[in-house]
Structure prediction request, 347 residues.
Amino acid sequence: MRTTVPFSASHALPLKPFTPALGLGNPHIQTLWGPLWRTKPAIEHRRERLWLKDGDFLDLDWHGTPSAHAPVVLVLHGLTGSSNSHYVLGLQNALAAVGWTSAALNWRGCSGEPNLLARSYHSGASEDLAEAVAQLRASHPLAPLYAVGYSLGGNVLLKYLGESGSNSSLQGAVAVSVPFRLDQCADRIGLGFSRVYQAHFMREMLAYVKNKKRRFQLDAQHEGLASLARLGTVEALSKMRTFWEFDDRVTAPLNGYLNVDDYYRRASSRYFLGAIDTPTLIIQSTDDPFVFSHSIPEASELSTCTQLELHAKGGHVGFLEGSPGKPGYYLERRIPQWLAALRHESA
Prediction:
């Protein structure tokens, strides 16, 4: 493990370093273990709807009982995920075990109900995160507020932190398996075995768009219908195979970008890292099958309050430790430990 730019020796290093589970160090096993073989923690959620300024909504799923001064952690899922993703449930369970309250944010259309506008969630949706943070700060003015983002959620989080600088309203943040350069990640996921992941994501993203088109067509007066119609027919959309195609034909036009190049350039978190002014931990692996190693930022690109914890193994949102018979989840050990140490230091 290599740690870059630790901003405080008291919580720079994990209590116990990450070691891949015996015989399970392959990056694809690390990546696939959670969604394919892990039994999801059974936790209770309390849903809260946040209304956005543009008339759309985000759903929060709370776990734990918030109190006036108790820390709150906002958890952000990745592409095609939700508050029901295994890594979200695992972290919420781990945070509850140490007495912290968490709120899992579902991006637009990801909570089981299509969102109300034509626009979608995407890797650059930091304005949605900004509204969620502002509403949480208003409703919990005395509570220390932290955020943890995975993959797409990590990219949005880092972009938001860079854009907001000293006004993030967060006391700390953790980003995991971040696609720092969206253009390069769109290339990486089209290579070798990673094309299996690309095919899975494409099916899920196309289903998201098709579901929205069907819903809007039930209401011929829906203002988003014309925008969705311009995307083309369902049959034409189904022929798309790559992220480049989807983001050029769907993500960019639905969300106000000129084209895929404009979207990838403006939404990639790597360009915002130097302006981060919130204590931040980034957990990344060099064998991530979604991210080229040259996409990972250099130390010179990071702000002084950002700590990059770079592992040789771990896959994408994997970091499975222990053994096949008794697996452990490093992220659910490391993230609460780091947040608690940060909280103690700032108390």
